[in-house]
Amino acid sequence: MENREDLNSILPYLPLVIRSSSLYWPPRVVEALKAMSEGPSHSRVDSGEVLSQAISDMRRSLSFSTLEPSASHGYALLFDELIDEKESKRWFDEIIPALARLLLQFPSLLEVHFQNADNIVSGIKTGLRLLDSQQPGIVFLSQELIGALLACSFFCLFPDDNRGAKNLPVINFDHLFASLYESYSQSQESKIRCIMHYFERFCSCVPIGTVSFERKILPAEYHNSSTAAPDTDFWSKSDVSLCAFKVHSFGLIEDQPDNALEVDFANKYLGGGSLSRGCVQEEIRFMINPELIAGMLFLPRMDDNEAIEIVGAERFSCYTGYASSFRFAGEYIDKKAMDPFKRRRTRIVAIDALCAPKMRHFKDICLLREINKALCGFLNCSKSWQHQNIFRDEGDKEIQLARNDRDSGPLRTETTALHGTPVNDVEINREKPANNLIRDFYVEGVHCEDNEDDGVATGNWGCGVFGGDPELKATIQWLAASQTRRPFISYYTFGVEALQNLDQVTKWIISHKWTVGDLWIMMLEYSAQRLYKQTNLGFFSWLLPSLATTNKAVQPP
């Protein structure tokens, strides 16, 4: 165990110690967890106030820094005032002891994880480790191990002083509880109730599936060595046809009926404000699918040419509202089928948009940044890629991303499965693994269905507090999805007025058989006119002047 590169990379961020090739809790933590596992008659942990004191004691025994100052008040507020006496008693009699027992098993769960990680796919690392910036890779975690990791977060047992230096987001729950006390809101309470419900469900029946976390990086084979992504010329010359565009005025991305890739309107730090005060699209998704939080442990901040794809996270909660009106609305039973790797067929991709771009959004460099970010996120590794060439080099020479004679080959999936199944589809350059976007692995006996539901389910990415232009962002995502050969986009407008003509515009463009390059060139021309104040129309009214006669012109920001 001591010689494992993956374990050594993550060990500084775990509360465990290693001795004689085994992982252990320090003795005083074992003593505290054993007492809690036997219930309040042994541990005396029967209130939020006492629970916070027990957490502080364990952190001191680990030589960790003190909790966020208001966190202890937050635990007391929740368990001693906000939830009713019956629910509180159940937590201290049943749930807290069950979580303590789970944490006592944490070292052995992790050891089993590393033993299995070597047998998943030959030559591919799948063990828990720091997936650092510009290092593409994948981690497979069982839902049981994720439960143990989230229990560590609940008890604030992860070391946190060293996380900032690696650009890692917060992982302990002390900020979540501190925020509840410092600025109480029903939405903040509802966030915590979602997590409580997850733990209640977990303790009643331990889930048996798997979740994969992958850092995706745009490859370097098709652009200049001085750049990290395709340039304007690449997009202008694209002759790829635009994919189908489905507009939904109502509904939610997470409720989409297809097996589409679901977009997380992410912060560059995965999870954003999930474990503090945030309560918009990304944070809500992390609350109703709490297993997503596990990625915050080992996935540092995303760079401009990176995305994070998570496959298999189970949904546990229903909700209503958004932001300040967000409310926990009870149990959700996730009926998504599992793939051969025991992952639910829920694929979520985190892509971060430019923050508060305003007029910057119309600059070529910003348009490129956004479309290349979406391109990285939408790259589809689950299909066979036969007869498909996504990238062209400067000489317009096609880089083959699929071998046409492998149409009957074994399974090709976005990531890796447990128990010996392939991770990705094509190896572009074996001598430059850091630049590989898609790798090529085949295992006998497992085949995939070439389903046509692998489109993209998205919406107004980067258009809320980040200040993006909804018409441009919709267009950018359409271009990226089309370039990656996604068969369709399901676009949820959430009632944004600027997108009332989205369906009409996309149908008109498709009827005229525009390519990705055609639409990109028009968007560049429009953006230049907006930047130099030669028009104040929105993109759609500028593109189709007939719309301007029936719609109010969009004023420059």
- H and E string: HEEHHHHHEHHHEHEEHEEEEHEHEHHHH
* Total beta strands: 12
Output the strand order for the largest sheet: 3-4-7-10-6-11-12-5
Beta percentage is 5-15%
User: Helical residue percent?
Assistant: 25-40%
Protein traits:
557 residues, alpha/beta, 8-stranded mixed beta sheet, two-stranded antiparallel ribbon, 12 strands, globular, disordered C terminus
Can you offer a commentary on this structure?
With 557 residues, this protein is α/β, with parallel strands linked by helices. It is 35% helix and 11% strand. The strands form three sheets. The chain has an eight-stranded mixed β-sheet with strand order 3-4-7-10-6-11-12-5, with helices on both faces. Helix 2 crosses helix 6 and helix 13 runs antiparallel to helix 15. The C terminus is likely disordered.
Topology record:
Layout: H1 5-10, E1 17-19, E2 22-24, H2 27-37, H3 40-43, H4 48-61, H5 71-82, H6 85-117, E3 137-142, H7 143-154, H8 174-182, H9 186-204, E4 210-217, H10 232-236, E5 244-248, E6 261-266, H11 281-288, E7 306-311, E8 317-320, E9 327-331, E10 347-352, H12 364-378, E11 456-459, H13 470-483, E12 488-492, H14 502-511, H15 516-531, H16 539-543, H17 545-548
Parallel strand pairs: 5-12, 6-10, 6-11, 11-12
Antiparallel strand pairs: 1-2, 3-4, 4-7, 7-10, 8-9
Summary?
The chain has an eight-stranded mixed sheet with strand order 3-4-7-10-6-11-12-5, with helices on both faces. Strands 1-2 form a two-stranded antiparallel sheet. A two-stranded antiparallel ribbon has the order 8-9.
